[in-house]
Amino acid sequence: MKEYEMIVIGGGAAGLSAAIEAKRHGVNVLLIDSNDKAGGQLVKQTHKFFGAKMHRAGTRGFNICKELLKESEDLGVEVLLNGLVMGIYDGDTVAVDVKVSLTEHKLMMLKAKNIVISTGASENAVRFEGWTLPGVMGAGAAQTMVNYRHVLPGKKMLMIGSGNVGLIVSYQLMQAGVEIKGIVEALPKITGWQVHASKLTREGIHIYTGYTIKKAHGTDRVTGATIAKVNPDWSLVSGSEIEVDCDFICIGAGLKPLTGLAHMAGCELIYDKALGGWAPAHNYNMETTKKGIYVAGDATGLEEASTAIEEGTIAGAAIAEATGHLSAAEAEERKAGAWRRLADLRDGFHGEERLAAKNKQLAEYDRLMGVRE
Amino acid sequence: MRVTEHPIFEDLDTTEYVNITVDGKPVKAVKGEMILAALLAEGIIINRYTTKRHEPRGLFCAIGQCTDCMMVVNGMPNVRTCITPVEEGMTVETQNGLGEWRTEG
To answer: Hey, of B42, B47, B48, B59, which one would you mutate to test binding to chain A, going by the most A CBs within 10 A of its CB?
Structure first.
């Protein structure tokens, strides 16, 4: 069985950053991604990132992706593409289903004492009458098709959810020529950032706060939708229905961490609404309650690509230390730098809730592992 | 429909094509693109019908997670078209239920 010092599962913002940081210090690392290209969801992000220069602010997501891929290539990170990790066994063995062609797959068993789970997240669905019709899709799915595959799922779109994903994707679909017929938000106020909402309202797009979708119309595909006002007890206000002329509907109702591998490997998960649901508890090194298994990025709580990059860097530095490529002092310098940048990213009004949740996650690790101050 | 004009993406040239057939009809697909993208470009949005209730399904996650876009490709059912690239001469068919294997050789 082929052995590495470190295996990273998932080559998005977090995984690429973990591999880059570790490889920079000489760790023998393999990065596995189930797609035919690494980059994760950065590939479809056309918006410029926020924050400071050290967080790559002002750079568009897909360009950050190119930078990370180039860095990883220049350092010589070994990458296994089309490799779907099916499980982690005995804490150090990774089973991978590698797609060779349409009809041929091969099974690989690989070993590493240090494994980073950076599998990202999946979109939440909203169930309503007609939600399974072709034309109802995740907001991220529409974003993938438009920004990455450069095809349109339809001409007229209704968005469900006014979080940042709902707002950003609506704007990006508009840039690609889609007519945005409205955004519904069941809560009484817009949940995403005002800066994103304003870009839409300036274009005359209406955000229906206190409204939700009642029904998608159509037999073979979406031909329209009915939206209605929501009572405080979440029932619909009768007589408040509005008909929306749309041919596709996007669901931007948040995401949840993809924790399957961590759960299966025996990592303790904790629940926090602010992190998108269940996520593995971890320590200062991003190591889970299972020794040698680390997590980074959305897989350990929903945040941003910029925070995923820092978490990946911490895991990479910690593993470089664990494998003897960095001294404790050198590793601490790298980790402390990334934690400082994370604190900046979680600062202020928008980060407050996430910061509290992430601190709870760290405290929970200590409690589970019986660590005393 | 394809995105042909975009304020951020300049390079949207689609000069290299391959020929595929979708439910018996010839379709021109951009070389290397995913099957699902080629279908959406043609306005085809139904990929399969469910086993029990024969309801149509189409694009839902676009990243190979949900399996709503599975079709019969070159006689092989349950192919996730959103993450499977087109190839010259490929046959793509709407899948009914679990589909049936029909691979040659």
So the answer is: B59
